[in-house]
Amino acid sequence: MTAPSRSGSTTDPTKPSDHPSHSEQHWTPRLWGSLVVLCAAMFLDALDVSMVGVALPSIGTDLNLSTSTLQWVVSGYVLGYGGLLLLGGRAADLLGRRRVFLVALGVFAAASLLGGLVDDGGLLIGARFLKGVSAAFTAPAGLSIITTTFPEGPARNRALSIYTTCGASGFSLGLVLSGLLTSAGWRWTFLMPVPVALLALVFAFRLLPRQAREERTAGGYDVAGAITGTLAVLLLVFTVTEAQGAGWLSLRTLGSLLAVVVLAAAFLLIELRTAHPLVRLGIFRNGGVARANLIALTLMGSYAGFQFIATLYLQRLLGWSALEMAFGLLPAGALVALSATRMGAIVDRFGTARLLPAGVLSLALGYAGFLRLDEHSGYLTLVLPSMILLGVGFALAFPSVNIAATDGVADEEQGLASGLVNSAFQIGGAIVLAVVTAVITAGSGGGESAQAQLDGYRPALWLVTAVALAGFAVAAAGVLADRRKRSIPVSVADYDYPSAQQAAPAGSEVLTKR
């Protein structure tokens, strides 16, 4: 039998700070404060990713870094973040979400300070890797604190919508801030987050709900699973990042991919046999969770590829400055930010199963619209329409995929579910970006002329659009599954925990069929 979902779990009414039964209309100031702190950490993570990208040319010139070394300023962060997310999510479940969040946020502040002070490329990459590691623990811990503090239904949907919107807004704002800060010196892109992170740490210590020791997940530690799983993800991210330079069919790349397969197979075998697995594979029997992770792969993968193409096109071919490009892409982020207060109500009304295909399709249309690019494309005719479609798509899909990825998951596995969806985002972005880079290089033939560049960008855009359409197909399958589920007559005797139905918010589906 499957364990009951969050909505069916038993809570202690004497501990409103841990599992508040607040309705959407009666959030206390402390509850709002906790959410703001968690949003601040998500905002900083997203801000950091986008700010560094715009500052790379200045970093390379100041520290005398080659192009291959410079890419590791970005890849180092992705390696630490994507490689350790599963471990970070499980650590939150086992060691306590609040504790893990506080320690990781402190490490993030220290690594940011280090990155802004170093004068050596190797140390800078090390600081970026350390920031990625810290984000791998703050992201799943923060998301699981929300999903265990706010009950399933309108309250959680609203909280997750605000939380995920802060991430998207941070990414968009980072593009603009980076242009302004880099003009004063690239080091400010690293130093600016330090006081914000420290302030968030102080308020987090005071406001975040404490997790009772007896409520933490019981059981041992899956050391073998942690080692093989983490190494598999780390090696996968490293391999796809380096494949462009080494060659996709080189002995080095093929050997690394084979090692990834061996490690992944060993990890799965360990998880199937251990009593306390790092990743309980049965979590994927929840169709909504499985589909959400696949959609997350395509969602971030397609956007990472598109942003890379758009950056090269606007700056290299059209001659835009970094700040002009940042403002040009801003409408997409602005739409996401403006939708924050309404997305919870929209999810309650339509459900994630309907919003996900609509959102992913809007993204695919935005990418496809950019295929009209040429040597003299105008902002109003090419860029702005795509930005509007991307903004609508992310506003609908990004909160929905996070809600779907944690819906119906028991409290003791919320960290795991959060780590899985965040891993999907990072791995999808790394893999698709690496393939897009290879396609651009092959299409342009290494030429610098406008036509050669366009010959590289167009097939890469087709690839990005195809990835988004694959996500749409998965989301559409979710609509069909949702309709079939609703058409099946419901009998209380068919479910494992009948009492959970009475505890669940109206309209939620929390029982697991036998």
Note down, in words, how this protein is organized:
Its main location: membrane. InterPro entries: MFS, MFS_dom, MFS_trans_sf, Sugar_transporter_CS. Residues 1-14 have a biased composition (Polar residues). The chain crosses the membrane at residues 31-57, 69-88, 100-117, 129-150, 162-182, 188-208, 220-241, 253-272, 293-314, 320-341, 353-373, 379-398, 419-440, 460-481. By secondary structure, the protein is mainly alpha-helical. It has helices spanning 29-63, 67-95, 97-117, 121-149, 154-184, 188-191, 193-207, 223-246, 251-273, 287-317, 322-338, 340-350, 352-369, 379-406, 414-444, 450-487, 499-503. The radius of gyration is 22 Å and the shape is globular. The termini are close together.
Identify the overall geometry. Answer: globular
What's the overall average pLDDT, rounded? 81
Q: Note the main sheet.
A: none
Strand pairing plus helix content: what structural class? mainly alpha
The ordered H/E elements are HHHHHHHHHHHHHHHHH
The radius of gyration over CA amounts to: 22 Å
Distance between the termini: 6 Å
Give the total of beta strands: 0
Protein name: MFS transporter
Subcellular location: Cell membrane
Membrane topology: Multi-pass membrane protein
Pfam families: MFS_1 (PF07690)
Pick out its properties.
MFS_trans_sf; transmembrane; 514 residues; mainly alpha; disordered N terminus; disordered C terminus; MFS transporter; transmembrane helix; 17 helices
Q: Can you describe this structure in just a few lines?
A:
The chain contains 17 helices and no strands. It is mainly α and about 525 residues long. It is found in: Cell membrane.
